[in-house]
Amino acid sequence: MLSVVIPAYNEEEMIPKTSQTIDKILKEAGIEHELLFINDGSKDNTWTVIEDEASKNPLVKGVCFSRNFGKESAIFAGLYESKGDCAVVIDCDLQHPPEKIVEMYRLWEQGYEIVEGVKASRGKESGLHRFAAKSFYNIMTDAVGFDMSRASDFKLLDRKAVNVLLNMNEKNAFFRALSSWIGFKSTEVEYDVREREAGISKWSTRALIKYAVTNISSFTSAPLQIVTLLGVLVFGLGLYSIIEALIRYFMGTAKEGFTTVIILQCLTSSAIMLGLGIIGFYISKIYEEVKGRPKFIIDRTTYEK
Ligand code: UDP
Ligand code: MG
């Protein structure tokens, strides 16, 4: 059986359409399936709509979070609740073409354990957004060691891979990258990102920046090396200033005092603060992980647990 995991946040307009489209495609292809909608603390009627769909179609199941935990948590909750031999994760807005699920499923039948959906194009995006996304993926590609520039959350995972992911107890799990990181026999399926059919994108610029920084920090500690680098730079500068000052002192043309002192003072203190900031950020991440709070809290489900 195939489990389809669909995170939904304020998607009341999309749920019926998404559920019926995917259901129809999978039925026609003769693939046994379940559709798992995860209501990620939506502020609209998403949950009522999911309950409604579930009462009409026994293959539809709904999970309701106690509040908004974010897409990553919704994906993990879906995988956690899934019963299938494999699971596919897909967006609720039909931007990921559902026909591709069949193609992915066939590849899984051939023995692939992870089938990644990769973007053939990135769809419509503004120039700045494109640039920011590109920089983010360049950093991530370096950090993860796989090409992340076309990666997306649209993928099919074998039960084996699902279980491995579920057993990772990282709080800041970045699904997109973790699924490549775990390895296994994988392949790719290309797809074109479509326009969103209804509703609006749930990502504000602020949310995207936070998402990028968190995910970079969860995969690499390279920013911490920047602190060391800063230290080396400031030390080099200091050494140069000392030598220059001493030479001038003995030559009887000592440096003008205040300007130099102020410059050095500002430079070193900003380097120190920047370093502390980066270290502090990582400590806060450690703090979050150590607390060991759950990734999500399920309030109710449309089925008996
Ligand atoms: N989503 C979610 N929780 C959130 C934000 C988004 O579950 O806090 C879901 C959303 O319902 C959709 C998917 O994640 O199914 C992708 O969101 P969206 O289409 O807004 O992102 P974009 O396609 O613009 O990257
Ligand atoms: Mg979308």
Short note summarizing the structure:
By secondary structure, the chain is α/β, with parallel strands linked by helices.
Structure description:
The structure is a single chain. 52% of the residues lie in helices and 17% in strands. The protein has 305 residues and is of the alpha/beta class. It folds into two domains: 2-218 and 294-301, Spore Coat Polysaccharide Biosynthesis Protein SpsA, Chain A, CATH 3.90.550.10; 222-291. The longest helix has 35 residues, at 257-291. It is elongated. The mean pLDDT is 85. It binds uridine-5'-diphosphate and magnesium ion.
Features:
10 helices; 305 residues; binds magnesium ion; 8-stranded mixed sheet; 2 domains; alpha/beta; Spore Coat Polysaccharide Biosynthesis Protein SpsA, Chain A; binds uridine-5'-diphosphate; 52% helix
How are the elements arranged and paired?
Elements: E1 2-8, H1 15-28, E2 33-39, H2 46-56, E3 60-65, H3 71-81, E4 86-89, H4 99-109, E5 114-121, H5 127-144, E6 151-158, H6 159-166, H7 175-181, E7 186-192, H8 205-219, H9 222-251, H10 257-291, E8 298-301
Parallel strand pairs: 1-2, 1-4, 2-3, 5-7
Antiparallel strand pairs: 3-8, 4-6, 5-6
The structure holds uridine-5'-diphosphate (UDP) and magnesium ion (MG).
Number of domains: 2
Kindly estimate the percentage of residues that lie in beta strands according to DSSP.
15-25%
CATH homologous superfamily (4th level) name of the largest domain: Spore Coat Polysaccharide Biosynthesis Protein SpsA, Chain A
Low-confidence runs (pLDDT<50, min 5 residues)? none
Highest-level CATH class of the largest domain: Alpha Beta
**Shape descriptor:** elongated
How many helices in DSSP terms?
10
